[in-house]
Task: inverse folding
């Protein structure tokens, strides 16, 4: 809940570190042209040169943003981001006692994050991870495939403790369009929040003809009456 643009103290103004991380990620992903501004080391306006207060830009080449802050109530704070290859770390903290302490703490966080976590590819785009039952279709099953690559960061010491499950509401009614979202793959790493990626139909499934639909209807009626399969 923001009461002013610069974030100066106000009784009705509040946010969390998590809020700031969400905003940072949105800027990076949605507006990369704007995001590039945050790694500028200085800026001149009206013949006045202003230096970037994020000292990590001079100390660590992986750091490319974002924003320092300071108020009496919050102390010295930083919303930071660093990129190493294809990996990016976004970190947020406040309550430090000086600009020097803020910079040193940020260096420790970046070093720890890249050193203690490893990237692990769970599935690649287009990989079939499950077969879903089809209702009234020309086919009884439809492959569920990943829409995109799924890579996760896991603690280095816990790389073997990754579990995955498929979630979907089935059977899925025909017709089914190729690429139609059917469910999701949930990946769980001990100590971290679950991560998900959409699962889509790997092929189209047309509505079944008269006999397949009659067979399905008869099967359902038979099960309801306790007669078993027709």
Result:
């Amino acid at each position: 809940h923001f009461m002013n643009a610069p974030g100066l103290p106000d009784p009705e103004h509040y946010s969390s570190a998590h809020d700031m991380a969400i905003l940072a990620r949105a800027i990076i992903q949605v507006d990369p042209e704007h995001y590039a501004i945050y790694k500028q080391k200085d800026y001149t306006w009206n013949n006045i040169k202003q230096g970037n207060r994020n000292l990590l830009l001079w100390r660590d080449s992986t750091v490319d943003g974002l924003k320092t802050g300071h108020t009496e109530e919050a102390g010295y704070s930083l919303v930071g981001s660093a990129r190493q290859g294809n990996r990016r770390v976004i970190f947020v903290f406040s309550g430090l006692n000086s600009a020097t302490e803020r910079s040193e703490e940020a260096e420790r966080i970046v070093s720890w994050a890249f050193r203690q976590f490893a990237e692990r590819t769970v599935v690649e785009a287009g990989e079939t991870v499950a077969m879903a039952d089809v209702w009234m279709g020309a086919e009884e099953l439809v492959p569920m495939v990943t829409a995109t690559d799924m890579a996760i960061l896991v603690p280095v010491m816990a790389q073997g403790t990754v579990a995955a499950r498929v979630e979907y509401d089935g059977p899925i009614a025909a017709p089914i369009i190729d690429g139609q979202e059917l469910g999701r793959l949930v990946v769980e790493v001990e100590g971290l929040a679950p991560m998900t990626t959409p699962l889509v139909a790997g092929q189209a499934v047309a509505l079944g003809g008269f006999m397949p639909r009659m067979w399905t209807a008869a099967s359902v009626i038979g099960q309801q009456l306790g007669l078993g399969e027709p």
